[in-house]
């Protein structure tokens, strides 16, 4: 009887899904280790740190978990408030960069490898749970949302920032989509986390939504769309991965080069007034 259960089609299908999921997470870890995401975090989107720390009301003594923390764009300024912060991310290489920066600045916090879809923490462990353009890249949105809620204490705060579908980064992913391999079954597009209705549906009645705001992050780093493209080709894991997938096809490489440069120019690269649209959402766990 036991052997029949273990070798039956449902068990085999579940095992296959488990293997597929592990392979997917391995690819994700490798993708975010490409290039230098910490450069993007410190040179381009550092402004998100104070925005999310203030929105979440992070204060001294609170237990804070930053999910998909990368190299510490939120975790470091959160720790500077005196909060007891844990930075969790799927990619150890990013955590090591953050750890080195924290040590250099004399900031104390924990850096721990963890999957946003299966966080290695107890129920109701943290006063505040944050994620800034991080958890949105976990492929399965509902399990990710459930984990964010699960590890937050009742009455605690969940504060999120995500790129919107219509904004610059959302459109960058739309531009790269025809050149990238198809997503695995069940995976959802990351910029959906920037759609308020989608996030409300994910979190459901387990939380009370306190604040939502769509805004633009000012970006003045690039003098042209081509400069933006080249910067992301060198530093941003998903862009590097897209180009690696078409490296053997010069026509596709040229077409993607042109499309990304045009996108940057269309959104104002080089004008000094470029803005990258994002959704800020703050909720209280019931």
UniProtKB/TrEMBL annotation:
<keyword id="KW-0489">Methyltransferase</keyword>
<feature type="region of interest" description="Disordered">
    <location>
        <begin position="1"/>
        <end position="20"/>
    </location>
</feature>
<dbReference type="InterPro" id="IPR013216">
    <property type="entry name" value="Methyltransf_11"/>
</dbReference>
<dbReference type="Pfam" id="PF08241">
    <property type="entry name" value="Methyltransf_11"/>
</dbReference>
<dbReference type="GO" id="GO:0032259">
    <property type="term" value="P:methylation"/>
</dbReference>
<keyword id="KW-0808">Transferase</keyword>
<protein>
    <submittedName>
        <fullName>Class I SAM-dependent methyltransferase</fullName>
    </submittedName>
</protein>
<dbReference type="GO" id="GO:0008168">
    <property type="term" value="F:methyltransferase activity"/>
</dbReference>
<feature type="domain" description="Methyltransferase type 11">
    <location>
        <begin position="65"/>
        <end position="159"/>
    </location>
</feature>
<dbReference type="InterPro" id="IPR029063">
    <property type="entry name" value="SAM-dependent_MTases_sf"/>
</dbReference>
């Amino acid at each position: 009887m036991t052997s029949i259960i273990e070798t039956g089609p449902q068990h085999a299908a579940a095992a296959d899904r488990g293997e597929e999921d592990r392979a997917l997470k391995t690819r994700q870890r490798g993708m975010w280790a490409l290039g230098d995401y910490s450069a993007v975090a410190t040179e381009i989107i550092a402004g998100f740190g104070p925005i999310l720390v203030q929105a979440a009301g992070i204060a001294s003594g609170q237990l804070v978990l930053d999910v998909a923390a990368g190299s510490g764009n939120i975790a470091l300024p959160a720790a500077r408030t005196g909060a007891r912060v844990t930075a969790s991310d799927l990619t150890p290489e990013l955590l090591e960069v953050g750890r080195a920066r924290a040590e250099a600045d004399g900031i104390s916090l924990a850096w721990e490898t963890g999957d946003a879809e299966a966080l290695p923490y107890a129920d109701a462990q943290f006063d505040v749970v944050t994620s800034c353009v991080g958890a949105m890249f976990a492929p399965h949105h509902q399990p990710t949302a459930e984990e964010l809620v699960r590890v937050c204490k009742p009455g605690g705060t969940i504060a999120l920032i995500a790129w919107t579908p219509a904004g610059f980064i959302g459109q960058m992913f739309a531009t790269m989509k025809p050149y990238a391999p198809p997503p695995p079954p069940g995976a959802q597009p990351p910029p959906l986390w920037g759609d308020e209705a989608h996030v409300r549906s994910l979190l459901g009645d387990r939380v009370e939504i306190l604040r939502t705001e769509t805004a633009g992050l000012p970006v003045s780093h690039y003098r042209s769309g081509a400069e933006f493209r080249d910067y992301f080709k060198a530093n941003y894991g998903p862009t590097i991965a897209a180009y690696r997938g078409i490296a053997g096809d010069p026509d596709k490489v040229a077409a993607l080069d042109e499309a990304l440069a045009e996108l940057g120019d269309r959104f104002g690269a080089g004008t000094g007034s470029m803005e990258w649209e994002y959704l800020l959402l703050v909720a209280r766990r019931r």
